């Protein structure tokens, strides 16, 4: 858990009275919150609660209807030069499985160069950065493989490596592990926590796995179009709160966390 | 055919222009086609190509300079189709099908008003690479240089937006501008290629070399190089076949491309 929650710290993300209307319905209603450096925040809520809409609006993928979003001190329709400081792992990553791109080529796209296009003194450095990033997510052996040969969980780790190649300050994950099995999910969460500590990331993620949220996140935003609660996971996950957020259908601790194979990543 | 005959053919100015044109078309088609097939725009190229029959007919009806009129037509048509795709909730293939049929229908109706021009229908449909003029070559060269500079400066961004547009947007890639620029480049390339390969087959020089390369390549840079190389070799070989056997140039080039594609598919399935 991080201690940089002092009131003096400049927030990495500041959202004020954000409302997003999609079609004829209000998807996000007057939401306000701040993310401070080094924190790991999870957005939880039932399906259709506006979690992905909120994330995508913050990332400027969807226009806000009203309200203000300031990311890294910048307020505008585009992230502009700050875009490189923001990493994003989307909920789904659909692509042509036969796309002629190798794992290392995909990761090297983050450096703005590719293959022999990269000439000059920094070329070797960039190649090393790509190799190191792949090693950190334990995919160094898959560098030369086509991305279409990887599993869903491995693709998410490649995208994490993509975020590692250049320094990031904010990492946004939109249910990044949807469709990945329980062990893969737990491994990824542990890897993410370790990399967060190492690189000083601020993380905002959408998650359905409340046991992983309570283990790794220091802050929870409970969303059901409106922000129903924000605070620590311990305080958020009371039966009353969960009933209010999810209704009576929730069984948040149905998944039991097990020790993982973290060692193999480092 | 003896060696002097061969040399004789290639010393003719129109044949030399055709060879240079073939090489330039091959490079341009290979580069643009690589992104065309990965962005699932093959049918878009087909639609702009077929719709060009309307452009050719309009240029003839109003007695406009053919090359320039066709460039303006294909760019406007391409952007118009994109506008319809974005502004309606119909699927892309439905819009393409409607615009293709509509423009071909209008083109054929327009053709009936061009009594004397009807004899050229075959050359509109199948092209004649030997009819390439110096202006066409210069325009083609300019377009190729623009494409090469654009790719050199933005290749990683282009790949990222081809792979996943949302991720590219978050990384600050001007996705929408790049998409429109690509459509414009593609439309101009098609307009310039119409004279050489005709409206029916124009899309093949974009799609077939890239598809052949994609069958055999797993890395992006080799894929791009292979696509370009196949484009050049098939265009030049096709023209030579066309010149030597007195066959229409467009179909000859497509035939060579097709043989290459089938050969790669068989080789890939065996290996």
Q: How do the helices and strands line up, and which of them pair or pack?
A:
The complex is a heterodimer of chains A (266) and B (271).
Chain A: E1 13-22, E2 25-35, E3 40-44, H1 51-58, E4 66-71, E5 86-89, H2 103-108, H3 122-136, H4 152-165, E6 170-174, H5 182-199, E7 202-206, H6 210-216, E8 219-224, E9 226-231, H7 233-236, H8 239-246
Parallel strand pairs in A: 3-7, 3-8, 5-6, 6-7
Antiparallel strand pairs in A: 1-2, 1-4, 8-9
Helix pairs in contact in A: 3-4
Chain B: H1 3-10, H2 13-38, H3 42-61, H4 66-87, H5 92-112, H6 121-126, H7 134-163, H8 165-170, H9 175-201, H10 204-216, H11 220-245, H12 249-270
Helix pairs in contact in B: 2-7, 2-9, 2-10, 2-11, 3-4, 3-5, 3-9, 4-9, 7-9, 9-12, 10-11, 10-12, 11-12
Written overview of the protein:
The complex is a heterodimer of chains A (266) and B (271). Helix content of chain A is 30%, strand content 22%. Chain A has 266 residues and is of the alpha/beta class. Chain A has a single domain (13-265), classed as P-loop containing nucleotide triphosphate hydrolases (Rossmann fold, 3-Layer(aba) Sandwich). In chain A, the strands form two sheets. Chain A has a six-stranded mixed β-sheet with strand order 5-6-7-3-8-9, with helices on both faces. The radius of gyration of chain A is 19 Å and the shape is globular. Chain B is 84% helix and 0% strand. Chain B has twelve helices and no strands. In chain B, helix 2 packs across helix 9. Chain B starts with a helix and ends with a helix.
């Amino acid at each position: 858990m991080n201690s940089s929650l002092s009131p003096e710290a400049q927030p990495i993300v500041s959202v004020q009275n954000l409302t997003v209307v999609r079609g004829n319905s209000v998807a996000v209603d007057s939401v306000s919150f701040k993310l401070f450096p080094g924190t790991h925040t999870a957005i939880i809520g039932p399906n259709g609660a506006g979690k992905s809409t909120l994330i995508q609006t913050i990332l400027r993928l969807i226009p806000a209807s009203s309200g203000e979003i300031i990311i890294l001190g910048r307020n505008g329709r585009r992230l502009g030069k700050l875009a490189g400081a923001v990493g994003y792992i989307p909920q789904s990553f659909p692509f042509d499985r036969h796309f002629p791109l190798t794992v290392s080529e995909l990761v090297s796209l983050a450096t703005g160069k590719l293959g022999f296009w990269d000439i000059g003194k920094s070329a070797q450095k960039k190649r090393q950065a790509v190799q190191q990033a792949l090693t950190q997510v334990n995919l160094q052996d898959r560098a030369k493989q086509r991305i279409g040969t990887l599993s869903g969980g491995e693709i998410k780790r490649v995208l994490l490596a993509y975020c590692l190649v250049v320094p990031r300050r904010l990492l946004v994950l939109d249910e990044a592990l949807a469709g990945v099995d329980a062990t893969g999910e737990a491994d990824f969460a542990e890897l993410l926590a370790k990399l967060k500590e190492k690189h000083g990331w601020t993380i905002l993620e959408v998650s359905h796995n409340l046991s992983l949220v309570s283990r790794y996140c220091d802050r929870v935003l409970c969303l059901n179009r409106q922000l129903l609660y924000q605070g620590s996971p311990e305080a958020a996950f009371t039966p009353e709160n969960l009933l209010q957020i999810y209704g009576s259908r929730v069984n948040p601790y149905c998944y039991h966390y097990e020790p993982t194979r973290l060692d193999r990543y480092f | 055919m003896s060696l002097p005959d061969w040399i004789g053919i290639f010393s003719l100015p129109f044949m030399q222009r055709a060879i240079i044109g073939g090489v330039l078309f091959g490079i341009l088609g290979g580069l643009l086609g690589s992104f065309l097939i990965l962005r699932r725009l093959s049918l878009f190229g087909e639609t702009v190509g077929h719709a060009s029959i309307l452009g050719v007919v309009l240029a003839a009806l109003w007695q406009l300079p053919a090359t320039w009129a066709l460039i303006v037509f294909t760019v406007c048509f391409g952007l118009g189709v994109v506008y319809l795709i974005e502004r309606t909730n119909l699927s892309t293939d439905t819009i393409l099908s409607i615009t293709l049929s509509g423009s071909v229908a209008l083109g054929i109706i327009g053709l009936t008003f061009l009594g004397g021009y009807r004899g050229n229908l075959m050359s509109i449909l199948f092209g004649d690479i030997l009819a390439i003029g110096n202006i066409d070559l210069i325009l083609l060269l300019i377009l190729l240089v623009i494409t090469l500079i654009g790719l050199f400066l933005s290749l990683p961004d282009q790949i990222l937006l081809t792979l996943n547009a949302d991720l590219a947007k978050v990384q600050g890639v001007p996705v929408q501008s790049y998409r429109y620029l690509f459509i414009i480049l593609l439309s101009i390339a098609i307009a310039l290629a119409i004279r050489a390969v005709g409206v029916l087959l124009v899309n093949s020089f974009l799609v077939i070399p890239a598809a052949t390369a994609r069958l055999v390549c797993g890395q992006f840079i080799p894929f791009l190089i292979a696509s370009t190389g196949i484009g050049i070799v098939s265009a030049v070989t096709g023209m030579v076949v066309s010149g030597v056997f007195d066959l229409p140039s467009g179909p000859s080039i497509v035939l060579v491309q097709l043989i290459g594609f089938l050969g790669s598919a068989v080789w890939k399935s065996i290996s």
